[in-house]
């Protein structure tokens, strides 16, 4: 080992030693300056690289937007999507490169400067201090007079001690110098070598990525050459067509548009005839406006602009007649007369008027003929069959996949009118109750507070997929069977649209006081099997789900049950009817339906109009009836909610909540498990969403210290993990074994759940560091969780990449 400063010279403290020290100190000072400069340049490079990655990501998002815009062109969309994916990979590679650069250059060299150079500086200070003390001791020793023996001995002792200390500290200083000179070579070379290896990996990854993309780019280039040739050919054809039409236009008289209008009863798009007509308004001024009219679907409609929704003039052509009008000042007028109104129209010429009149008359005859054929088909298919049920399910599937939130929710039985007043076409919903409301009733629901009703617009708000499925699982008919069970017995009539005061009293009595809930007839005594199930442990109930077969009588289910079945995820269907007698359940629902309907009709006739709105919901004997305790044979509402959550039966869960079930009730016989934990064990995402919307505590744990997030992680339910993290689940909580959800997911090697938990933890740390408390997080975090939510609700089979052994739990 080559020494920068000789230890022997250190003991001599010769001029050569001092000169060597001076040279080393200057060299170290210059080294420190160089390293500080290099670290600052590295930081600037990393910051610039991050800005480049951000700009590159924005550019890549622009390419994706262009790809989505070009969705009608498969070639362009596919190419741009592939290119944007490749650019995204390069952005990821850049991010990894900058991260490794930060670790190899910035962190490593900074550590060398802060640790090793600091030790050198401390040793230098001590050496300079003891050197000064040594000089002072030598001077003092030389100045002592020989006749002063006491002072001579004292000066000699001080000098001896000082020299001894000097030699010790000088040797340490020289050792520090030699170690620093030796170490700086390895530190600098190690950091630079790590930096270069990071670049090597970066360029290898980029080369591999574009090598895989190369064949596709080559094929795309050949395809592009063909597209250029085809484009030139199409251009010549269009120029030729343009020249032909221009020559034809020079010989044709365009004084009228008679030749351009024809009617076709069998048109493929259903439009028999369309064109511009003048329409006389029904106001006092009788103004005429030019509108685009069309005959389609046995209706006469018009619109001002193409994007406007068509306005229906005649709803059913079979009920109208058409005639000439010669008693008006304008020419070419004709009138379409229906039982409720008439519409005066004007064509641009006599030929056009005759064509419109004939088209309307032909459409009337066709409408009669089609109606007769449709009636015959309905007579042939009047008997129930599995085919009709399948077609209904297919239509529901189409609505679930492609229609708006309003259309999807309103297609549920009873949802086409307000749940409380019956007004048609409701545009609002209570998401925790699962009902649709008119705008006036929604305002009253808002005044109740979110602990009773959470109101959201079906047209203005954004709907999460799991929340939309929750709305489709319940509906007005299901909820009214529970909350209006005693309506006919009490002789109560539902308020009509516009009766604001009566509505407020009725809604408060219905949902807050729950006066119309039948506390006895709805709840049924438990069977022996149900009594046994209630005493089982969580593990026995989960194993029983595997052993109990699904009922085979699904084909006999009525429309409500068929709807619920079609909306369940594939992984939820296996155990949906495991603990239910489907046929008896349907009979009870049908009997409740008929009873409520009949009682409502009788109640409307018998209720006196002089009863005030406040006294309307206080019949005699109500207080006495409410004070009676449930018979011991009836289920505890909390236990009913607990069971129904495991069985994925949302109507029964809503029934239990209506009967006063505590949504956070814990079963002392089964490890203090809650209904939300049972919903996790049952495997239903919609059931968990329903409980959370109704106030379930996402962090309430059982006796083993495991909350819903723990159980969902153990069972590998990725969609539920995503839902709980979005609802504020504490992922740092540990169970009695000291394990948090992330450690459980890592042990189980569940990549999806590990990704979600780490993203949530990183987002939480980011918000805490930036002081963004209460904020949802950055866009990437929200996009990833939104994608997982969509996949869990619409394509759960894509998340079934992990299967947890049930005995581990």
List keywords for this structure.
Substrate Binding Domain Of Dnak, Chain:A, Domain 2; seven-stranded antiparallel sheet; elongated; PH-domain like; repeat; alpha+beta; disordered C terminus; 809 residues; 3 domains; Annexin V, domain 1; single chain; three-stranded antiparallel sheet
Provide a compact summary of the structure:
With 809 residues, this protein is an alpha+beta fold. 60% of the residues lie in helices and 7% in strands. Strands 4-3-2-1-7-6-5 form a 7-stranded antiparallel beta sheet, with helices on one face. A 3-stranded antiparallel beta sheet has the order 9-8-10.
Overall outline: elongated
Estimate what percentage of residues fall within beta strands.
5-15%
In DSSP terms (H or I, runs of 4 or more residues), the helix count works out at 26
- Alpha-carbon Rg, integer: 41 Å
The count of DSSP E runs of length 2 or more, i.e. the number of strands, is: 12
Distance between the termini: 61 Å
For the record, the CATH architecture of the largest domain stands as: Up-down Bundle
Per the CATH scheme, the topology name of the largest domain is: Substrate Binding Domain Of Dnak, Chain:A, Domain 2
- Biggest β-sheet: count, sense, barrel? 7 strands, antiparallel
Helix content: 55-70%
Give the integer mean of the pLDDT values: 75
Write the layout of secondary structure elements.
Elements: H1 7-12, H2 15-69, H3 74-143, H4 149-251, E1 271-280, E2 288-296, E3 299-303, E4 311-314, E5 321-325, E6 333-337, E7 342-346, H5 350-380, H6 386-402, H7 405-410, E8 428-430, E9 435-437, H8 439-448, E10 455-457, H9 465-473, H10 476-483, H11 500-512, H12 528-534, H13 538-547, H14 559-567, H15 570-573, H16 582-606, H17 622-626, H18 637-647, H19 650-658, E11 666-667, E12 673-674, H20 675-682, H21 685-693, H22 708-715, H23 718-726, H24 741-748, H25 751-770, H26 779-794
Antiparallel strand pairs: 1-2, 1-7, 2-3, 3-4, 5-6, 6-7, 8-9, 8-10, 11-12
Keywords: ANK repeat, Cell membrane, Coiled coil, Endosome, GTPase activation, Membrane, Metal-binding, Repeat, Zinc, Zinc-finger
InterPro entries: ACAP1/2/3-like (IPR045258), AH/BAR_dom_sf (IPR027267), Ankyrin_rpt (IPR002110), Ankyrin_rpt-contain_sf (IPR036770), ARFGAP/RecO (IPR037278), ArfGAP_dom (IPR001164), ArfGAP_dom_sf (IPR038508), BAR_dom (IPR004148)
Subcellular location: Cell membrane; Endosome membrane
């Amino acid at each position: 080992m080559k020494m920068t400063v000789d230890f022997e010279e250190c003991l001599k403290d010769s001029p050569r030693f001092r000169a060597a020290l001076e040279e080393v100190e200057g060299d170290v000072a210059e080294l420190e300056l160089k390293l500080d400069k290099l670290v600052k340049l590295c930081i600037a490079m990393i910051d610039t690289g991050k800005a480049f990655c951000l700009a590159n990501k924005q550019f890549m998002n622009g390419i994706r937007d262009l790809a989505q815009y070009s969705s009608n062109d498969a070639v362009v969309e596919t190419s741009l999507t592939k290119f944007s994916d490749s650019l995204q990979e390069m952005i990821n590679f850049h991010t990894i490169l900058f991260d490794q650069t930060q670790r190899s250059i910035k962190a490593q060299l900074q550590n060398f400067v802060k640790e090793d150079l600091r030790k050198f500086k401390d040793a230098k200070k001590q050496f300079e201090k003891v050197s000064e003390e040594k000089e002072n001791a030598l001077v003092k020793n030389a100045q002592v007079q020989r006749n002063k023996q006491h002072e001579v001995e004292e000066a000699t002792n001080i000098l001896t001690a000082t020299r001894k200390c000097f030699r010790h500290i000088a040797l340490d200083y020289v050792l520090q110098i030699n170690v620093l000179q030796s170490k700086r070579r390895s530190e600098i070379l190690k950091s630079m070598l790590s930096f270069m290896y990071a670049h090597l990996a970066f360029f290898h990854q980029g080369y591999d990525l574009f090598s895989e993309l190369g064949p596709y780019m080559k094929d795309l280039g050949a395809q592009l050459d063909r597209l250029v040739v085809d484009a030139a050919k199409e251009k010549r054809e269009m120029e030729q067509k343009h020249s032909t039409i221009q020559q034809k236009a020079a010989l044709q008289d365009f004084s009228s548009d008679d030749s351009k209008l024809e009617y076709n009863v069998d048109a493929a798009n259903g439009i028999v005839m369309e064109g511009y007509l003048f329409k006389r308004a029904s106001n006092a001024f009788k103004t005429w406006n030019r509108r685009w009219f069309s005959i389609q679907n046995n209706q006469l409609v018009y619109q001002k602009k193409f994007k406007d929704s068509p306005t229906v003039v005649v709803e059913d052509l079979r009920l109208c007649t058409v005639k000439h009008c010669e008693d008006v000042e304008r020419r070419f007028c004709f009138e379409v007369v229906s039982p409720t109104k008439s519409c005066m129209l004007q064509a641009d010429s006599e030929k056009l008027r005759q064509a419109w009149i004939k088209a309307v008359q032909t459409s009337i005859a066709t409408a009669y003929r089609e109606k007769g054929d449709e009636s015959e088909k309905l007579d042939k298919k009047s008997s129930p069959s599995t085919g009709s049920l399948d077609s209904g399910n297919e239509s529901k599937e189409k609505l679930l996949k492609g229609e708006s939130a309003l259309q999807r929710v309103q297609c549920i039985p009873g949802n086409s009118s307000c749940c409380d007043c019956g007004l048609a076409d409701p545009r609002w919903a209570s998401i925790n109750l699962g009902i649709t409301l008119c705008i006036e009733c929604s305002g009253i629901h808002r005044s109740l507070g979110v602990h009773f009703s959470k109101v959201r617009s079906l047209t203005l708000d954004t709907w999460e997929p799991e929340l939309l499925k929750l709305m489709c699982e319940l509906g007005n008919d299901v909820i009214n069977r529970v909350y209006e069970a005693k309506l006919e017995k009490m002789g109560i009539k539902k308020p009509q649209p516009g009766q604001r005061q009566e509505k407020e009293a009725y809604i408060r009595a219905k949902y807050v006081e729950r006066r119309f809930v039948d506390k006895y007839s709805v709840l049924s005594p438990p069977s022996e099997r149900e009594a046994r199930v209630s005493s089982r442990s969580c593990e026995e109930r989960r194993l029983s789900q595997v052993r109990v077969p699904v009922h085979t009588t699904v084909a006999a289910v009525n429309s409500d049950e068929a709807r619920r079945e079609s909306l369940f995820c594939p992984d939820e269907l296996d155990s949906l009817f495991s603990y239910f007698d489907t046929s008896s359940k349907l009979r009870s629902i049908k009997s409740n339906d008929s009873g409520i309907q009949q009682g409502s009709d009788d109640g409307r006739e018998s209720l006196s109009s002089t009863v005030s709105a406040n006294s309307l919901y206080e019949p005699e004997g109500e207080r006495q009836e409410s004070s009676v305790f449930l018979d011991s044979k009836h289920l505890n509402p909390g236990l009913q909610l607990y069971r129904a959550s495991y069985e994925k039966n949302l109507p029964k869960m809503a029934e239990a909540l209506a009967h006063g079930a505590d949504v956070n009730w814990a079963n002392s016989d089964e490890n203090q498990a809650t209904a939300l934990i049972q919903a996790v064990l049952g495997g239903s995402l919609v059931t968990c969403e329903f409980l959370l919307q109704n106030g379930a505590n996402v962090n309430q744990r059982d006796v083993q210290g495991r909350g819903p997030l723990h159980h969902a992680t153990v069972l590998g339910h990725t969609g539920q993990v995503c839902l709980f993290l979005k609802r504020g689940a504490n992922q740092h909580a540990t169970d009695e074994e000291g394990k948090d959800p992330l450690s459980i997911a890592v042990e189980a090697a569940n990549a999806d759940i590990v990704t979600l938990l780490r993203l949530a933890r990183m987002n939480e740390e980011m918000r805490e560091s930036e002081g963004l408390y209460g904020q949802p997080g950055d866009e990437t975090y929200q996009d990833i969780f939104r994608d997982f939510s969509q996949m869990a609700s619409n394509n759960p089979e894509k998340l079934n990449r992990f299967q947890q052994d049930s005995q581990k739990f």
